[in-house]
Amino acid sequence: MNMENLTALIKPHSTIDKDDIHVSKEIVDRTVWDKLAIENPTHAVISAKDEESEAEKSVEQIADIMGHLNENDVLLDLGAGYGRVAKHLLPKKKLGGYVGVDSSYEMLSLFKRRYDQSSDEQKTPVFFLNADIHTLPLKDNSIDVVIVCAVFLHNHKSVVANAMAEIRRVVKPGGRVLVYSSFPRFATFMGLQGQVYQALLNLLGRPFKNGPVRYYSRREVNRLFQDFAEVELKPVGFTILPKTLIFLPGFLEVIYRVGLANPLNKILEIITPAFVKPYFAVHYDVVAKL
Ligand SMILES: C[S@@+](CC[C@H](N)C(=O)[O-])C[C@H]1O[C@@H](n2cnc3c(N)ncnc32)[C@H](O)[C@@H]1O
Description:
By secondary structure, the chain is of the alpha/beta class. Helix content is 41%, strand content 20%. The structure holds S-adenosylmethionine.
């Protein structure tokens, strides 16, 4: 068989040629974070345009995480990305250990490269683990605290359910789980659009595609934490108009977002009474204890 015949065995348009290695488009989809890590990691991870805005956007979250940590805790950062949390947390708090898990090798490489240069972070030993959140190569009862920041929403709900089972397995009794920006609320206009998008993907036979955000009801989140001894759901943010209309073409979408949705949502947030705001929250953060 020559090369032409061999190539003919491959389904049309199903692979991408990378230096004569043929990468299945399924894999390309799964490693979309690798591409983002090379292009613009801070923007991909926290929509920050530079290091200053990344630090600013991280302040509150880092303070909150610190409030849940003891000195000798082993912390598991699920979907650690380039290690934004470690970058801001570890110089302030020495831990027993830090396990950074990510399915993107490129993201973890950025994390490790910075860590290797940062004596402040190195006071805590960090283990870099290139793995999926729902199949963790970690021993049972090995972790004190888990953090998940902006990760679940990018995964199919079945993956998240399996990841939660893994979390329950690896966390010690009495351990804590902190979930940030990972459960966008279903009962919002963004949530409705997201449902339509997911339904379309289901129809196209691509339910697991990376890209659509997955939205949750309060009941769904509570169900994921049903085996925990304590669970607190915190409504965060405020939105009435959807921040984007996903089916609009590029330039109209920008006009809608910048010219209409952002300013109007800001005004509505100012004039809405505090006790009504939780009904218009963007997402739920979760603090749970096993
Ligand atoms: C938006 S970034 C958040 C990074 C980090 N948690 C933070 O807040 O700075 C999402 C990260 O989750 C990782 N990720 C997404 N799905 C994953 C999965 N199923 N298993 C492991 N990592 C995943 C991506 O590779 C990416 O680095």
